[in-house]
Amino acid sequence: MEYKMIVLVKQVPDTKNITGQAMKEDGTVNRAALPAIFNPEDLNALEEALKIKDKFGGKISIISMGPPAAAQVLRESLFRGADEVILLSDRKFAGADTLATSYALAMAIKKIKDYDIVLCGRQAIDGDTAQVGPQTAEKLNVNQITCVDKIVELKNKEIKVERSIEGGYEIVKTKLPVLLTITGEANFPRPFSAKKVLKYKYAVTPSEMSSYDEEYLKTTEIDQSNVIIKLWDHSEVGAKEEQIGLAGSPTKVKQIESVVLEAGEFKNIDNTKPGLEELIKELMNEHILG
Amino acid sequence: MSKNEVWVYIEQNEGKIADVSLELLGKATQLADKLKVKVGAVLLGSQIKNLCKTVFSYGADTVYINEDANLKYYTTLPYARVVVDLVKKYQPQIVLYGATTTGRDLAPRITSELKTGLTADCTNLQIGDYSAKDKEYKDILYQIRPAFGGNIIATIVCPDHKPQMATVREGVMKMNEPDSKRTGDIIEHKAEISKDLLITEIVKRFQQEKTVNLKAANIIVSGGIGVGSKDNFDLIIKLAHTIGAEVGASRAAVDAGFVSKDHQVGQTGTTVRPKLYIAIGISGSVQHMAGMSESSRIIAINTDPRAPIFQIAHYGIVGDLNEVLPKFIEVYKSLKK
Questions:
Q1: Residue whose C-alpha is closest to residue A22's, from B287, B227, B157, B271
Q2: A25-76 per-position pLDDT tens digit
């Protein structure tokens, strides 16, 4: 049978391997120093969906909640083989914690209505909470399987997957519909398809389209047929205002501190044999090194 | 039994309680003392009553137990059903979970149903007051965690919803000394587990004891992305073997495939407090440092003299590991003779 799939993706600042440069002198985050990327495990989720579609056929819809700039991850989803892409964007979503986010996403999924499998990355690298997947599943009243390393078998309305547990793994079986959160172990995401890049390189949201200057448009091949990225706001998905954004978020940020590193007693050790000898002797005398 | 307790979700697996749950009982005891309430423990499974004794000895005043053959192994829906049931009935003000694969599967499902907040991977929990625009809140749970790639520390509160819920990684909190004389109340609960909750079938399970024991290690030699390659990482392992240390790693080194995830130190790995921590090729993301900054002594070896790790290190060596480590091993061996 063919499968209807929905993949949830997020555009995130690339927080990996960053050090002090990400902070400005006044202690605020230097966003400019952090390029925005496709959340890595969401790419793994998309890849699993594409593999299912390759094998059984079906349809892949992508939803991303974020600011207008998040349209980029939707274009990249099209370049990889997604069929339908939706940007869930509204100023009123701003300040959403994981609960308010999962509510908005669940409302968007309910608008799509017909699905067999919802996939998302296990966690996003900006928060590492791993909460939005299970919370969305609860709001949809569907079963969830988190930390999926491998889809073992998909047969009719039944799925068997391997998931990580503490110190090992388990193989579990459940019925569709289900929400899966996929780990980076699952696969190597495919690169863009050159054909699809050509087809979708000018894919835009309606608001991106209307922001273009008419004179500019005359110099390009962009026209209304490029408005491929759907743009849904809170009323489009029927989300209640009191349940979205800051208002819909039970958690509040009380305080943010930039990290102050403790400067303790510090000894610079010469990178020479006598230098190391002195260090090792000191640690041995204190019985720290045996 | 009374309302407003501080609860810990006790994770047990085939009759063995996860360390993190016992650690959380230690923290819950502190929070409950401050709030002048009792510590409750939630224990789910099949034939697990014998575990209550242990749970009391680590600090619980009351154990809420739900035994059911359908709860023999963890699956999301029935476990979530039982905990939600208990929370609704007994109304704790705080519920803490270990940030294990189980805790991270269960806690968000429960928060969503209860429409309350959840803060993941807290590195500290405190009680304090909170003032919003037009309202003052007394004795709120401060849920403190690194955010934004660890560059900031955020204090999160959940003032208007109960229970306040948080997950904490293993090793972050300290266990109480067990007191075998402690006892308490056992409250047996029997939630209705309907068939439609039993739709996840466990086909196979494989689990082994951890082969890496970072928490118990006196010395840890840890490598980061700066180590450069899996081959170079052998030098880290060699140094560790020479001086009788456990091998650690930063998340970046684990992600790069230099070494398995069991070795990961940091906010999303294991929190450690060894006597000596040798950080090699680790620049020092805040997430990593949150997991090792309480080491008694820290030696940092890095080619970049401006690496943040030097700011918490007691000894710094600026240099390439391929140069420094062989020398270190040689000098150590000659001094041992």
A1: B287
A2: 555 556 667 789 999 999 999 999 999 999 999 999 999 999 999 999 999 9
User: How many whole angstroms separate alpha carbon A252 and alpha carbon B196?
Assistant: 35
Structure-token pair, residue A228 = 């491929």
Confidence of residue B262 (pLDDT cuts 50, 70, 90): confident
CA distance A28 to B293: 23
Nearest-angstrom CA–CA distance, A224 and A206: 9
Nearest to A257 among B153, B202, B335 (CB): B153
Own/partner long-range contacts of A268-274 (Cβ < 8 Å, ≥24 apart): A268/B315, A268/B316, A268/B317, A268/B318, A269/B299, A269/B315, A269/B316, A269/B317, A270/B317, A271/B317, A271/B318, A271/B319, A271/B323, A271/B324, A271/B327, A272/B327, A273/B327, A273/B330, A273/B331
**B200-214 as b/e: b if 16+ CB within 10 A:** beeeeeeeeeeebeb
The answer to whether the Cβ–Cβ distance between A99 and B155 falls below 8 Å is no
pLDDT band at B337 (very low <50, low <70, confident <90, very high): confident
State whether residue B236 is helix, strand or coil: helix
Average pLDDT of every residue of chain B: 93
For B264-286, the pLDDT digits (tens) are 998 778 888 898 999 999 998 88
In a domain, B206, yes or no: no
Nearest residue in A to B240, CA atom: A289
Percent of chain B with pLDDT strictly greater than 70: 99
**Preferred mutation among A172, A249, A286, A287 to probe B, highest tally of B CBs within 10 A:** A172
* Shortest CA gap A229–chain B (Å): 28
* 8 Å CB contact between A112 and A148: no
CATH code at position B146: 3.40.50.620
Domain of A131, in residue numbers:
3-243
Chain B nearest CA to A260, separation (Å): 9
* One domain for residues B67 and B147: yes
Residue B120 lies in a domain: yes
ipTM: 0.89
Compute the average pLDDT of residues A216-231.
90
Q: Using CA coordinates, name the residue in chain B closest to A128.
A: B120
B284 touches chain A (CB under 8 A): yes
B contacts of A266 (beta carbons < 8 Å): 310, 313-316
> Is residue B212 in some structural domain?
no
Residue A218 is predicted with a pLDDT of 85
In a domain, B98, yes or no: yes
Q: What's the sign of the alpha-carbon dihedral B295, B298, B302, B306?
A: positive
pLDDT above 60: residue A20:
no
